[in-house]
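Note to self: the last two entries modelled the partners one at a time, which told us nothing about the interface. This time every component goes in together.
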Amino acid sequence: MSRLLLVSNRLPVTVKAEKDQVSVVRSAGGLATGLSGPHERSGGLWIGWPGDVSRLSQAQRAKVDAQLAELRCVPLYLSASEVSRFYEGYSNRVLWPLCHYLLDRMPRQDRDWDAYSKVNERFAELAASHYQPGDTIWVHDYQLMLVPGLLRKRLPEARIGFFHHIPFPSSEIFRTLPHREALVRGLLGADLVGFHTSSYVHHFSNTMLQVLGLETEVDHVTHEGRTVRLGAFPMGIDAAAFERLAQEQGTLDEVKVLRERATGQRLLVGVDRLDYTKGIPRRLLAVQRLLEREPSWRGRLRFIQVAVPSRTQVEDYAAYREEVDELVGRINGLYGTIHNVPVHYLYRSLNERQLAALYRGADVMLVTPIRDGMNLVAKEFCASRPDEDGVLLLSEFAGASNELCEATVVNPYDVEGMTDAILKALEMPAAERQRRMRALRERVKAHDVHWWVGRFLDTLQAIPVATQQPETA
Ligand code: ADP
Ligand code: F6P
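The predicted structure of the combined assembly is written out below.
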């Protein structure tokens, strides 16, 4: 196996500072879990941002650096202005809404392209400085779309892969972007560009045609004398770990408490980052409509919505939070009693056990993003149900719906339709719940994160790079 150089905006670790103590903890996220095996085995490096360390003293910074080095993580520290312009500005105010079809949320005039380009240069420079001949470089996500092209200029012979973790939108959307050409050229610096679904591959192919006039074959395109492979690689989760956790006594005890507190009630659950792509307001409206339309369910339903704070410095996220707060208050005001409220809303992150208990205890899991590259929560829910029970309500606009066809698939823009689907889920016979969940679990377990990493890296490493010509500027 060749040495792996992983490049992602965030490192797979979190810097924790409590009083005088500072430590670096591995993140539990899908990317970190899936890539930790190949990262260890290949003896490679992971390059990325360790998060905001501006409040740490010099001594604490040195301690963080030493701990990162032990994990073979190479930090790229972002200045306050880079966080505000590269990360919040171009990545999350421009590319994020664009890729999620939300053009109205983009600023009329983007002023942060230069910061995006400069930080991409910094990432490419750092990765190139650690490169050794024979290494495989794997770059991740929309924050770093220019990096493959910048690396290709520095390292014409390198084997470079790129994975796009969010939707790649229709070319009609992507080509509205003033810097569309530079971004597409950036991706074409890779030998393999991967997406979650074949629709995203198709959208990218159309974009290349529209923006650069490039004709694509099914799985590759030739550009300036080089062949760039394209492919769909649906990302999975660490299904075995979720299954294990869902069976542990501690988790089952938590489930018991959860169910006892909701005696006589059915549990609907939503777990998301608080992001305007996740469809939380319409989901809440569907619950409100259900209570309005079906008085017999009043008092017999509890909807637990957990939202983890995210990108809080971006105005649209703050406004979205207010919208959600207001809706929760309205529904509880209308349908709560002095004994209970229909919506139990938490604005915080949960630990793994609490998450597993929620998944395991839910009657219906509501995963209704208005657009989502994949959505791992849907897969985590299935993996956490060794009891083969629980209904998954899944948006047709989540990449996961391509694979999880036994879910109850809904249009998240159709509030009335979602209300019907929730009712149907609540009334679904046990045998049908079991049949669906069994099929969902088989797929989630077979196509887990290790399968995803293996397929991407096998495809990338099978590409003969030695014969390639350097890209002309
Ligand atoms: P995204 O990458 O857009 O956040 P995904 O559904 O693909 O969406 O991944 C979200 C990840 O964050 C999942 O692994 C999920 O377990 C985790 N997560 C989401 N909400 C919470 C929460 N409230 N507490 C802890 N983890 C959460
Ligand atoms: O899904 C895209 C993604 O960038 C993930 O890689 C990441 O876990 C999530 O969004 C949260 O993003 P951020 O790094 O902005 O907190």
